[in-house]
């Protein structure tokens, strides 16, 4: 280090001035204000002579001690190291403040409300709540602030300015403390320790929130109902369900949102931004949750397991829908005909029967459909295509749901349970048919007589007695039959197979 030069007092103070130096200088100014008779021209000249200048940046310091502390900014020296987490500091003052994070000590107490603080500066800021008038007004939104610095920070909300950038990943922030907190993600420093479970956290607020899981404390109460919350932001979100407030407006359209996260997700529909990339393929997503769900296709992970039958699912919504098979719950009811459904998708499809026009026509047979997907599924009956094959036995199916149903024969999964007798079934339709043996329900009535049936296929077979229809034809002699069992019995005549009497 080169010898200090004589001081040249300047009007500007640099941002690197330490808290300790600022406090000592403030103390000197305060003493000077209390003893104005000492502030003669000779006294000021004498004070100037004592000032020292940094040879690196030209900054003026009041004492050699202050200069030595300041020089550590240039040398990078941090002689005070925390034995708890290894973090180092330039100043003993900063080190002592930091140690209170580990000890939990909060020596500065508000005389008005009894709240305690780790730092004197935090207490001073807090006292303005009791004593200070908010004289600094934002000309954009009329919000007022206790200090000019608070207004300056607030204005960046309107200007979208983010002057502090992370050197590791380039992410930008409005406030420097937010950048510092973010940088701990890269360094891995977690200096805040929970003494209940020894879990560590990057920020003090994260520790404070976590500690409420041990204490059960819920300090934030809704002003509209008796519900209480551990976190202030969750309370604010909740209260919007009462007020209907939607403070977040889309910058591309007039749509408004009650949650900031919902706004950000919505705006990506306009920008086309998809910031979340799958780790296994090139697909990108506009929501982190959607990406995580997609990745389970690659990993095969199915974290949501049914406690009733052991079946696992990739998505929680799928598990909740599946549980209705066991409970029998059908929450979606048609207001037109009263029919209820287990799935909202099934309900939506059903509603097209009442409201929708069948505009999708098959060019093979003229049959019309409500949706293009229904037409596509129907066309397979003409092409005889069966693209879905069972990996166990090779049997092919025209539709994927049919394959899934078939595969349960191999897996033995019977997730549909009768609560009357405990019998299980592979298909929901099989359970429904079985339940009619308990209820005696016969929903299918013959259009020619008053006879009723529990199964649709039994009704169709019966009605052939009235119509004389014989849909089953022998390919050997062209004789026709009303029932498939009659045809099978007849075919043995041609094959020579002995019939069992």
UniProtKB/TrEMBL annotation:
List keywords of the entry alphabetically: DNA-binding, Metal-binding, Nucleus, Repeat, Transcription, Transcription regulation, Zinc, Zinc-finger
Pfam families (alphabetical): zf-C2H2
One cellular component term (GO) for this entry is: nucleus
Q: Name one GO molecular function term.
A: zinc ion binding
Per the database entry, which stretches of residues form a coiled coil? none
Q: Where in the cell is it found?
A: Nucleus
- Major location (coarse): nucleus
Protein family membership? Belongs to the krueppel C2H2-type zinc-finger protein family.
Job of this protein: May be involved in transcriptional regulation.
**Descriptive protein name:** C2H2-type domain-containing protein
Lineage of producing organism: Eukaryota, Metazoa, Chordata, Craniata, Vertebrata
